Amino acid sequence: MAAPRSADVQPMWRQFQLLPFTGMALGISVTLTLTMVVFTYLLFLNLFAQSFSRSLVIVLGVLVVVSLTTVLLTVTQLTYVTVTARQDRDVDAQRAAWQTRFDRFLAGGEVPQHLSALAQDELLQRREAQADHPDSARLAALYAGLGLRERDEALALRHRNGTTRALALERLVLLRDDRTLPVFLTLLRDARGSLRNLALLGAARALSVPGAPIPPDLTGVLTSGAFSTQQVREALCLIGPPAEPLVRHMAADARDRWRELAVDAATRLDPQRYADLADTLLRDPTPGVRAGALRLYAGGAPLHPGMHALVLAQAQDPAWAVRAMSAQAMRAFAQPPTVVLWRLLGDPNWWVRQHAAQTLARSEAGRAVLGRAVTEHPDRFARDMARTVTAELTVAANLTVPAGPSAPGVPLPVEPAGAAARA
Amino acid sequence: MNLTAVEFMFLVYFALMNVGYAIGLTTTVRQLALSIRRHQTVRFASLLTRDTHKPISLLVPAFNEEATIEASVRSLLNLRYPQFEVIVVSDGSRDRTLEELTLRFDLHPVSMVVPLTIRTQAVRATYRSASVPHLLVIDKDNGGKADALNVALQYARYPLFCALDADSLLDEEALLRVARRFADDDDLLVVGGTVRPLNGAVFRGGQIVDLTLPRRAVERFQIVEYIRAFLVGRTTLSTYGLLLIISGAFGLFRRDVVLQVGGYAHDTVGEDMELIVRLHRHAREQRRPYAITYVIDPICWTQVPDTWGLLRRQRDRWQRGLMETLWRHRRMFLNPRYGRIGLVAMPYYVFFEALAPVIELTGYLLAIGLVLSGKFSAPFVALFFLLAIAYGTLISFSAQSVEVFLRQRISPPGDRLRLLLFALLDNLGFRQWTLIIRFWATLTGPLRAGQWGKQERRRIDTTDTTPDPPPS
């Protein structure tokens, strides 16, 4: 039985003979362009010669070139379809045969002395699918032992064709061998974006091993502008816990976007570990960073009692995103600050209202307040939001939410005069 | 007029056009290699397994789609992407679209409050599926496709949205492939994918497993046309940053920016193109870095018209949409403030797309007139016409040569030969027929602004149409 393929995403293109075809198509294209330019130039000369018959010869000449090219493309296409259709049928059988040979090898049998391109792919996919299994390391050793890792490294670094380099690099990324890290780090500075992106993926996977040394200049490379924020976010998440020095370095960056990214990555990686970042960045001058710091609390970072006041103060921030995240961060409070949340429920921004309602819905006391807000909140949009979230609660969790008038004992959360001034 | 001068003019025009095609072909082939470099499966797998993806809202406007809606929604729910929601908007359907959805997906009414920033027709009710939590159905008063999309846009929760036609099916990995582009580029506003005709597809388990050539000539011509338009045309325009159209059938957008520019325009039949031009305009006026691109390998399968009448109406609508959009944004035409969009893309779309029917038909009539009046050599005209056909065929053949590399392609040799034959015939009648339709639409368009014309849907048959393989 064939091992599962981890990637399990089908390649969109058949790569059989793609590069020769690419070369041929480029040749056709250039030939046609030159033909047209030359014939037009000839006709330009002919314009002054006033010879009609020569014009016909020129048009006929172009017609012959175009027709021959068309015939060539037809034959190529039909040949390609026929050959690859047959090839498709053979591939499954070959894959199954190689799986059997790998099974035998892993059971202590004969070591394969040569791997076809298909077998190499199969081995790498199998290793990827069983990354944590001891067999996986043996497969990687087999690949390296046959000199294939070194070959791929050489191709990825030095081949003149970009596609060949990318394909070699992809094999190395799948191989996930620590020894390839220097190659990945070198290629992080490559001029071709596609290679840089793959190298980043490979480096992130290699660095995810606990204890792997994080190169000191990696933060500089990541924030150099060669990568999008999303790519850096992905890389940090792939590296996992070992990414901590990178995240902390970025959190101290002078540029807003990288501080924002650092706090976002911290939320995704381990909010508890980065709680001190939230404490610091909550005082950041940039609203996006403050919002991120609040999200870190909402994500599970422990909130020190001394920070309560600061989080509550953010509920009056001029930036709606900060107010919204403040409402969300209040989920970390032992008791929801219903007075503030009641006010945020009537915030002009929809997202702030929504987060306030969702935070209220997470505790019994909050749900009681939410129930009252359905009928008693002075803001009609707040009443709408409370009604929506209450209805969702009732449907989703079958929770009993006390309705406004029939909820005795629930005080109406009213802020002291002057405290409710909105920013 | 000097006879040779006329010949010369024709050939210069022809040479220029073909140099353009050659550039297009070269660009396509280069992009093909680039696509392979960029879209490794391991990168898609990483997107699937990490929680750093951007979630996507799939918006499906549906007006009288009872025949296709179930298959369409089911195919969307089967997509491979970590986090997405499907929002179907029944745009005042008068058939059983809503009942069909309620029955098939166990819909229950829910109350929702959303921030409404775009004026739309009234929403009657919203429904959530009890069986599929990420399916939302909105029932609203009829207001047209743009109106339905604007409603869905405002109910959407995620940062990216994909507008889809209800008669379309996405390849199961299409979202992964388009979303990858957003991960690679922070400035990206929109990504369009390839649209391919669904007609002739063979299904198994709700997925397309094979392609055959459909029976009707009208469908076959469109297959040739779509392959050429997407695999060569859009690739080239996108490469040079000149893309003004992302097919309404399949495009992934950044939601906040579309809301900023006011969503889809109600008063045009070309709302998909109009939105793209407006996004270009907005970004250029804001002087912000941005990109609007097409990627070759995410695929959306769409049902193309299977009768000449339906095709005529569709092409008429497309041409009017094009004219309306170009007219509405005429301020951008040759305006250096809009960079290459104003200086190159707009003139290209005006002269080679919108006015092409007028220019080409005038050329045909002029040539015939000159031959009849004896001022032009009939053999030269005939040869020139042959040359035009041969070159047009060559471009279609080249596009089809790219198509053979796709995982899903028309494979039987007999079908491929027939497809090549239709690429030849495409220039020998079909092209001229569409020119006449578009010419008429150009003339009468201003009188019919915003009118959609009647549409019909065929049921998407996703039952298994291939026998199971024999037991090994």
Automatic annotation (TrEMBL), chain A:
Membrane-crossing segments per the record: 20-44, 56-80
Q: Spell out the residue ranges making up region: Disordered.
A: 404-423
Q: What is the lineage of its organism?
A: Bacteria, Thermotogati, Deinococcota, Deinococci, Deinococcales
Respond yes or no to whether keyword Transmembrane is given for this record. yes
User: Which InterPro entries does the record match to this protein?
Assistant: ARM-like (IPR011989), ARM-type_fold (IPR016024)
Please verify whether the record's keywords include Transmembrane: yes
Task: Give the keywords, sorted.
Answer: Membrane, Transmembrane, Transmembrane helix
Q: Which organism is it from?
A: Deinococcus seoulensis
Q: State the name under which the record lists this protein.
A: HEAT repeat domain-containing protein
Highest taxon listed in the record's lineage: Bacteria
UniProtKB/TrEMBL annotation, chain B:
A single Pfam family, by name?
Glyco_tranf_2_3
Extract the Gene3D superfamilies matched here: Spore Coat Polysaccharide Biosynthesis Protein SpsA, Chain A (3.90.550.10)
Q: Which GO terms describe its molecular function?
A: transferase activity
Give the UniProt keywords, A-Z: Glycosyltransferase, Membrane, Transferase, Transmembrane, Transmembrane helix
- So where does this one cross the membrane? 6-29, 338-359, 379-399
The UniProt entry, under InterPro entries, shows: Nucleotide-diphossugar_trans
Alphabetical list of SUPFAM superfamilies matching this protein: Nucleotide-diphospho-sugar transferases
Domain of life of the organism encoding this protein = Bacteria
Family that this chain belongs to: Belongs to the glycosyltransferase 2 family.
- Name the chain's protein: Glycosyl transferase
List the top taxonomic levels of the source.
Answer: Bacteria, Thermotogati, Deinococcota, Deinococci, Deinococcales
